[in-house]
């Protein structure tokens, strides 16, 4: 079963959440609740682009892979994204369920990575006679929109950083002295001394052999722990005092090169999209994909839309697997926001088998 979700936001106070569910290759069920609208009918469509950087205006036209005219959901000649109208009650809220066979969650015509849009006016379903009827249904302005993403993969976008607790380094552990070590130490005691105080020495070593010693974890130098979420062993080295406190290297800085050796970099421009995986220590790029390369741009309709971003994520994942790389970490640049096209690239990587850890400030 495929599941998707879109969270609607608007500067006009319209909010809502739309869920998409598809069983196998069957029809897709769309259920949702939208509030903050004026009572009546409102056009409801899937638009071609998931780009919301300029509000709903940057989501492009209706999703129309077959190049048809606008129509009603039951018409043969219609856009794939034509979902008709939603009905808003007197309280300004619409609760609805729609089923449709032209908005799959997988395959070449998948709506994942695109946007769902609520319009200000009713959709005339292409029958209003207006000059915009066969293009947009004359549904008016775009009052709210949301990026459609796969619901099942959202938890993997959360911060999965493993942070050792300070108590791990100071809590005592039980240490049992080795009896062979005690016997060896006892043998080193001079015979003349043991002959004089034999009773006291035997009593002392027998007592020590029965008593456990509480030692700090740092006494052992290296301790092994297991992360409860992933059941993967990590080795934490004991803390060392820096000779120069101003140049102290944190625990994370010392170990991140071993725990997360590969970093993901995504670059989005108005003309192309590129992404790469780089080894943190050697700075060697182990996998690169971009819409400017000849083999990629030859099969894409556009080099900078959401489908292109998802294609780059898929291609990069294939090349990463060829290099035996299955994990990466990603932190957006200061000027980048983790949404729209950037999120589409990362989401596509995750959907295609690369475990990406996201670090958001």
Automatic annotation (TrEMBL):
Keyword Oxidoreductase among UniProt keywords? yes
Q: Which residues form the Superoxide dismutase copper/zinc binding domain?
A: 14-148
- Which cofactors is this protein said to need? Cu cation; Zn(2+)
Task: Kindly give the Pfam families that the UniProt entry links to this protein.
Answer: Sod_Cu
> What's its catalytic activity?
2 superoxide + 2 H(+) = H2O2 + O2
Q: How many cofactors are bound and how?
A: Binds 1 copper ion per subunit. Binds 1 zinc ion per subunit.
Q: Which GO terms describe its cellular component?
A: ribonucleoprotein complex; ribosome
Please give the PROSITE patterns that the UniProt record associates with this protein: SOD_CU_ZN_1 (PS00087), SOD_CU_ZN_2 (PS00332)
InterPro entries the UniProt entry points to: Ribosomal_L18, SOD-like_Cu/Zn_dom_sf, SOD_Cu/Zn_/chaperone, SOD_Cu/Zn_BS, SOD_Cu_Zn_dom
> Is Ribosomal protein there in the keyword field?
yes
Q: Which biological processes are named by the entry's GO terms?
A: cellular response to light intensity; cellular response to ozone; cellular response to salt stress; cellular response to UV-B
Which GO MF term does the entry hold, naming one?
A: superoxide dismutase activity
EC nos: 1.15.1.1
The UniProt keywords, alphabetically, are: Antioxidant, Copper, Metal-binding, Oxidoreductase, Ribonucleoprotein, Ribosomal protein, Zinc
Could you tell me which CDD domains the record lists for this protein?
A: Cu-Zn_Superoxide_Dismutase, Ribosomal_L18_L5e
Report the function annotation for this chain. Answer: Destroys radicals which are normally produced within the cells and which are toxic to biological systems.
Q: What family is reported?
A: Belongs to the universal ribosomal protein uL18 family.
**Protein's name according to its UniProt entry:** Superoxide dismutase [Cu-Zn]
